[in-house]
Amino acid sequence: MESVRNIFSHRKFWAKRFGTAPVLPMSRAEMEQLGWDSCDIILVTGDAYIDHPSFGMALIGRLLEAQGFRVGIISQPDWHSPSAFKTLGKPNLFFGVTAGNMDSMVNRYTADRKTRSDDAYTPNAEADKRPDRAVIVYSQRCREAYSKVPVVIGGIEASLRRIAHFDYWSGKVRRSVLPDSKADILLYGNAERALIDLAHRLAKGEAIADITDLRGTAILRKDIPAGWSEIDSTSVDRPNQVIAHPNPYEETAVACVETGKAQHAHPVAREGRAHTVIRLPSFEQVRDDPVLYAHANRLLHLETNPGNARALVQTHGDRDVWINPPPIPLTTEELDGVYALPYTRRPHPAYGEAKIPAYEMIRFSINIMRGCFGGCTFCSITEHEGRIIQNRSEGAILHEIEEIRDKTPGFTGTISDLGGPTANMYRLKCRDPKIESACRRLSCVYPDICINMGTDHTPLIQLYRKARTLPGIKRILIGSGVRYDLAIRSPEYVRELVSHHVGGYLKIAPEHIAEGPLSKMMKPGMGAYDKFKELFEKFSKEAGKEQYLIPYFMSAHPGTTNEDMLELALWLKANGFRLDQVQNFTPTPMAFASAMYHTGRNPLRKVIRSGETMPIPKSGRARQLHKAFLRYHDSANWPLLREALRQMGRADLIGNGKKHLVPGWQPAGTGSPSPSTGDSMRRPQNAAHRNKKPSSHVKPAAAKTKPPRRIK
512 and 577 in one domain? Predict the structure, then answer.
C-alpha cells in the first residue's frame, strides 16, 4: 500500500492566529466574538451540531480548525430558500455538505416507507428538520446562495450514492448524487485525508476543477485523461483457476475474485493498475437492465481494497462519474490525533436544555476503532468505512475515559461502550501486509474466518482490564455488537466480557437461522451462535450472575422464503423468545443486499444472465408476513399466519397445544380473519388454556433503534 503524509504534517493556514474556538460558530455574532470577518470553510449538516467526535461535522470541523482554517457550522437550515445558507456569509474556500450521521431517507422513513415521528439527531427529537435526499437539496441551496463558491459533498449519504444506485424509497435506479447535487467533488468513506489535502490545495489557489487525483473522491469528467488505460468491467469479473499453495510473498500475487485465495498473475497486470480505470455499465444501462446493475454493484465492491483498487468510471448522459480508489486508512497516531482535538463533548450552547437523543445515547461511550471486515451484505459500515481496521492506541483510549470522568456533566462512573462498528475487532488484522494489499475477498469471516486473519483478542482484554481499574470508574459496559464467530476463537475474551462488561443482557445478531438467507447475508451459521451461547452461560454461572443473551433477527431479507421464516419462528418458540419489536430489511444504497432486492440476482458470485436467482420478499404482504413470523405470539398476526400456514401445507401448526405455533382461536377485537379461513373468534373455555401466554425466559428484544455512530 502506498505511503502517504501524516494528516497533521501540513503547514497550517494563516488563520491559525485566531486560535481555537470554544465551539465552532453557528452565527455571525459568534464569529464576531472570535474576531472573524469571514469563514474559510462552512459545513452544512442535517444534524444538530454536537461538539463530540462521534458526530461527523464536529470531527471534520475540529480537524480543519487544527489545520488553521476558520470553520463555521450551518446546522439543520431551512432548505426552502437560500437565505439560511447565507447566515455566516460567503466562505472563502468552500461549502462542505452532508446529510448528517445517517442517510436522510433512512433517518426520515421506516422500513415500510412510513414517515418517522421523531429524529434522534434533532433537539427534543423533533421530526421534519431535514429534507428528503438532504445532500442534493443543501448543495443546490449553497449554489443558489453563492454561485461561485465550490461545493464539496460527503458523509454517509453521499458516500453510498456515489454511483448509480437503487433507491428503495422511489423504487427506481437513481443517478449518482454528484451530478444531481451540482457539487464540484464528492468525498466518500472516512474522508480526513482527502478533505485536508483539498482544503490546503484550494487555500494555495488551485482551482477545484483541477483537483482530480485525490483518493476517496469522485468527480465529473468529459473524457479519460492522457496516460490512462481503460478496460471494460465485463473483462474483469471472470472466474479464475485457483493455483494450489501459492507463495503469498510473490510480488505478483493477487487475490482470486471468486475465493479470495492468492494466485499468480502476469506482472504487467499489477504494474499498470495505478493508471487503469474500469468502465462500469452506464447509468442508463444499469437503470434498464437488472443484470448489468448487479454486475456493476459487484465490481464496485471488488474494487474497495486500498491496496489494489482501481479507479472506476460510469457514464451519466454526456459526462462520466470518475471514482478514484479508496482512501489510505489512518494510522494509529493519526487516529489518536483526530480524537484528541479540543471537543467540548456537548451540544452547541444554542440548544439550551433541549435533549438530543443521539447525544444522550453516546455521551459516555468511546470509539476505539473504525472499519469492519465482516462484509454483511445488508450493512453500510464496511462499504463506508472499509474492511481494514483502524485502531486507536490504548493510552489514548484510557485518557479519553478520564476526560469523560472529569469533564462530562452527569457522569456517574459508568462508561456505556468501548467499541465502534463492532465490539471485538480491535487490533485484529491480516497476518501479512502483502497478503492484505492483494486480497479481494468480500469478507474476512465468511464463509469462514480467513486463515490469514488474526483473531487474538489479547490487546482488547488488556484494554478492558486497565479501563475498569481507572479511579472513579465503576463500570465499563460494551454496547457495540459482538462478532460472536470471532469471540469464540478467544474463550478468555468471552470470559472477560461476560464476567465484567455485560449489564444483564447482551445483544448479538445472528439475523437468521436458515442457510438460504444466511448465505445472502454473509453471516455465520447457528453453530457459532450455539458455541457462544454455551460459553456465555458457562462464564455467567462462574461469575455468579444471572445474565441473558438477546439475539437480533431480520425479516424479509433477499433470499428468504416463507419456509425459512417459519423455521425461525419455530426456533424462537422452542427457545422461549417473544420479540417485542423486530427489524424488517431496508434496502440502502450500494449495499449488496439492495442489489439482490432490486435485481433478484446474487452479486456475491459472478453475475451472468443464466446465473443464480433468488426469492425476494418484496410485496407489502410478503414483508408483513415475514415480520409476523418473528412476532408469532402477537394475536394481531394470528389471522395472517393461519392463512399462510394453510397455504404452506402446515395447518398442523395451528392449534392450542405446545407443539402449535399459533392458536386456532382469536381474542375479540384483534386481527381481521377473513370468513374463508374458518377461524373462530371465540376463545376456548378449557381451563388449561385460560390466560395462557407463550413462555419466555428473557425480556423481549428491543428494536434496532440505536442510531449509526461515528460515521462521517
Answer: yes
Do 276 and 311 contact (CB within 8 A), yes or no? Answer: yes
Q: Which of 683, 646, 648 is nearest to 664 (CA)?
A: 683
The CA angle 654-655-660, to the nearest 5 degrees, is: 70
| 674-693: pLDDT as tens digits | 433 334 333 333 333 333 33
- pLDDT number for residue 672: 59
- Which CATH number covers residue 504? 3.80.30.20
All cell numbers assigned to 635? 394475536
Outline where 321-438 has alpha helix (H): 332-339, 357-362, 381-385, 394-407, 433-438
- Nearest CA-CA partner of 506 in 522, 490, 493: 493
Which domain does 425 fall in, by range? 364-633
Read off the pLDDT of residues 430-440 as tens digits, 9 standing for 90 and up: 999 999 999 99
Looking at per-residue confidence, does 518 or 266 come out higher? Answer: 518
Whole-angstrom distance, CA of residue 622 vs CA of residue 630: 13
Give the DSSP per-residue string, 64-129.
HHHTT--EEEEES--TTSGGGGGTT---SSEEEEE--SS-HHHHHB-TTSPBPS--TTSGGG-S--
Residues in the chain: 712
- The sign of the dihedral angle between the CA atoms of 480, 578, 574, 556 is negative
Q: Rounded to the nearest 5°, which phi and psi values hold at 637?
A: -95, -10
Q: How sure is the predictor about 263, in pLDDT bands with cuts at 50, 70 and 90? A: very low
In a domain, 352, yes or no: no
Residue 242 DSSP symbol: P
**Are 434 and 572 in a shared domain?**
yes
Degrees (nearest 5) of the Cα angle 479, 480, 481? 120
> How confident is the model over 324-337, as a mean pLDDT?
97
User: In terms of domains, do 616 and 591 share one?
Assistant: yes
How far apart CA 290 and CA 588 sit, in angstroms, is: 17
- The answer to whether residues 179 and 122 touch, using CB atoms and an 8 Å cutoff, is no
Cβ distance 111 to 582 under 8 Å?
Answer: no
Are residues 270 and 417 located together in one domain of the fold?
no
Residues 341 and 334: their CA atoms lie apart, in Å, by: 11
Confidence of residue 347 (pLDDT cuts 50, 70, 90): very high
Tell whether 198 and 228 lie within a shared domain. no
Q: Are both 196 and 242 inside the same structural domain?
A: no
Distance CA 552, CA 513 (A): 11
Average pLDDT over residues 353-381: 96
Is the residue at 408 inside a domain? yes
Q: Flag whether pLDDT at 645 surpasses 70.
A: yes
3-class SS shares of the chain: helix, strand, coil, % to 5? 35, 15, 50
Nearest residue to 383 (alpha-carbon basis) of 183, 158, 214: 158
Residue 270's pLDDT is: 52
- The whole-angstrom separation of Cα 495 and Cα 542 is 9
For 175-229, the DSSP string reads --HHHHHT-SEEE-SS-HHHHHHHHHHHHTT--GGG----TTEEEEESSPPTT-E
* Amino acid 169: pLDDT: 97
Does one domain contain both 46 and 188? yes
- Residue 347 inside a domain? The answer is no
Residue with cell 481494514: 388
Question: Given 176, 192, 222, which residue is the final one in a domain?
Answer: 222
**Which pTM value belongs to this model?**
0.90
Residue 700 placed within a domain? no
Number of domains making up the chain: 3
CB 219 within 8 A of CB 212: yes
Residue in this structure with the C-alpha cell 454528484, named with its chain if needed: 178
Are 540 and 396 found together in one domain? yes
